[in-house]
Design a protein that fits this description.
By secondary structure, the chain is an alpha+beta fold. The chain has helices at about 1-10, 15-20, 40-50, 70-80, 95-100, 115-130, 135-145, 190-195, 205-219; strands at about 60, 65-70, 170, 175-185, 200-205.
C-alpha cells in the first residue's frame, strides 16, 4: 500500500524509501555507487553520450549538482574561460550550481549572469521544495548566501522580448560563446542513484559558437 501511494503520487524513489521508513518498513529501492559492477551498463551509456556530444560540453551531475564526470568539450570550455588547472592543485569536489553563481567560478565570464542565475536558482529552489531533503535545502541556502545573489523575492524577469530559449552567454576577451542546455535523465530507474543522475548537454546558439568549439577541440 505504501508503494502504491508513492507511485500514485509520483514520488521519487528516495522519497518512497523515506515513506516506507516512516511506516516502519525497510527501504525498497537500493542506492548504489556508480562504481559498482551492477551499474556497468549505466556507466557505459553515460560515457557513450558524453563522447558523442563532442566537441560540445557535456556534464553528468547528481541531484545536488555535484559533478560526476565531464567530456573533453566541457574541459575545453572551462580551460578556455579560467585557464588550465594547476597540476599540483588538490582535487576538490566540483558543484556546478556553486560554480555558476560564485565570483571565484564561472560567474565573471557570464555576460547575462543575473538572468541565468535567476532561472538556475529558481530551479534549485523548486527541486528543494519538491525533494524536502536536507542536502537540497543546504545547497539552496549555500547559493543564496553567495555575495551578489539576490533574494528570490527580489528577482525580476526582464521586460524585453525573450527568445524561445535562455542562452548562457560566456565571454572571454573578444570571444563570445552563446549556449543553451538540455538535461537528460535515465528512463525506468529502479535504483535511487540511477534515478537522480542528470546529463546536461550544452549546444551552440549560433554558428560562431559552434566554430569556436571546433577550434578548441582541434587544439
Amino acid at each position: 500500500m505504501v508503494l502504491r501511494l508513492g507511485a500514485t503520487m509520483a514520488l521519487p524513489l528516495r522519497q518512497q524509501n523515506a515513506l516506507l521508513l516512516a511506516a516502519g518498513y525497510a527501504p525498497a529501492w537500493q542506492e548504489r555507487d556508480l562504481s559498482t559492477p551492477d551499474l556497468a551498463a549505466v556507466n557505459s551509456a553515460l560515457d557513450y553520450m558524453l563522447a558523442h556530444h563532442e566537441p560540445y560540453p557535456g556534464f553528468v551531475v547528481d541531484r545536488c549538482w555535484n559533478l560526476l564526470r565531464a567530456n573533453r568539450g566541457a574541459l575545453n570550455l572551462t580551460e578556455f574561460l579560467t585557464g588550465p588547472a594547476r597540476g599540483d592543485a588538490p582535487l576538490e569536489k566540483v558543484n556546478l550550481a556553486v560554480a555558476l553563481v560564485s565570483p571565484d567560478g564561472l560567474r565573471p565570464f557570464i555576460v547575462n549572469w543575473q538572468e541565468a542565475a535567476l532561472y538556475f536558482v529558481r530551479g534549485v529552489r523548486a527541486d528543494a521544495d519538491a525533494d524536502g531533503a536536507p542536502a537540497m535545502a543546504s545547497l539552496l541556502n549555500r547559493l543564496l548566501g553567495v555575495p551578489g545573489v539576490p533574494a528570490l523575492s527580489e528577482m525580476l524577469l526582464p521586460e524585453e522580448d525573450q527568445a524561445p530559449l535562455l542562452p548562457i552567454h560566456f565571454r572571454r576577451d573578444d570571444t563570445s560563446l552563446r549556449l543553451f542546455t538540455t538535461i537528460a535523465t535515465l528512463g525506468t530507474p529502479r535504483d535511487v542513484t540511477v534515478e537522480e543522475i542528470r546529463i546536461e548537454f550544452f549546444f551552440p546558439m549560433d554558428e560562431p559558437t559552434a566554430q569556436a568549439f571546433r577550434r578548441l577541440a582541434s587544439g
